[in-house]
Amino acid sequence: MIRKCLFPAAGYGTRFLPATKAMPKEMLPIVNKPLIQYAVEEARDAGLQHMALVTGRGKRALEDHFDISYELEHQIRGTEKEKFLAGTRELIETCIFSYTRQVEMKGLGHAILSGRPLIGDEPFAVSLADDLCLNLKGDGVLSQMIQLYKRYRCSIVAIQEVPRDQTHKYGVIAGELIADNVYRVSSMVEKPAPEDAPSNLAIIGRYILTPDIFDLIADTQPGKGGEIQITDALMKQAQNGCVLAYKFDGLRFDCGGAEGYLDATNFCYEHLYLKGL
Fold first, then answer.
1. Closest alpha carbon to 7 in 25, 31, 32, 19
2. Beta partners for residue 179, in sequence order
């Protein structure tokens, strides 16, 4: 079944400049934990053990975060501050981390293709860390999607309803409802104007992909913005077989921008940090 999760993390984070000029956006803290750790914990809780990160220049902090800092641990050993590293230590001990670089920033599709040597010929999950997804009442988004994959054995994208005037920020799907919150995708458009959007069902940063997606991405020409879009490759896959869209249970915060980041910080402080979670 699915063992690996790919984290495209090479982007510049331009929506959060100047904070991201020298710091990866995936390392932005939500209270006292960076976004990338929330994403890795979600994948781990879904039963995935191999974390494959696609990074870029200036992203060394991501590798350092999931490594042992002997000097730091020596300084805090035996103090109450040790507890703050317990969650990170657990991830280091229970997960496998591998890294590769996306040398040129050519879009999400290209970032996923850059991770092919880490994934190989098997189905895998994709998680965009700046989309913080939480479900305090049950399974996380990736857990829900993996259960769905066990039933349908095809690529799946996570979706949520957005206001019509926001469709230009997302990939947007149209499709046939085939089960509760599950759509068979018939159309997929990258960042359409509101008047051109086929629906208000927007793709967010969680995917389950079958390995044939790599060849489809490799054959995809640059699209909007000169980037290789994963939506274009998924549309080819949908025409040849089956791609599902899943309206997940839970909350999603767009932490690539200031408003969503502040909402996420306030929510996590109240519902997680103060409760010791």
1. 25
2. 182
Count how many residues are written for the chain. 277
d(CA 34, CA 45): 17
10 and 109 in contact (C-beta within 8 Å)? no
The pLDDT tens digits of the residues spanning 145-185 come to 999 999 999 999 999 999 999 999 899 999 999 999 999 99
Determine the average pLDDT of the residues in 246-255.
Answer: 96
Q: Give which of 275, 271, 269, 270 is closest to 33, Cα–Cα.
A: 269
- 100 has which bridge partners? 54
Question: Read out DSSP for 180-224?
Answer: TTEEEEEEEEES--GGG-S-SEEEEEEEEE-TTHHHHHHTPPP-G
Residues 6+ apart with CB under 8 A from 230: 107, 108, 109, 112, 171, 207, 217
Tell me the pLDDT band of 224, cut-offs 50, 70 and 90.
low
Cα 25 from Cα 175, distance rounded (Å)? 33
CATH 3.90.550.10 assigned to 4-273: yes
CA 160, CA 166: separation in Å to the nearest integer? 12
Instruction: Say which amino acid occupies 88.
Output: T
Structure tokens at 46: 């879904």
Residue with tokens 């895998």: 124
Q: How far is CA 112 from the centre of its chain?
A: 11
Specify the DSSP element, H or E, that contains 119.
Answer: helix 116-119
Question: Does an H or E element contain 7, and which?
Answer: strand 4-8
Structure tokens at 26: 């995936």
User: Which residue is it, tokens 């549309």?
Assistant: 235
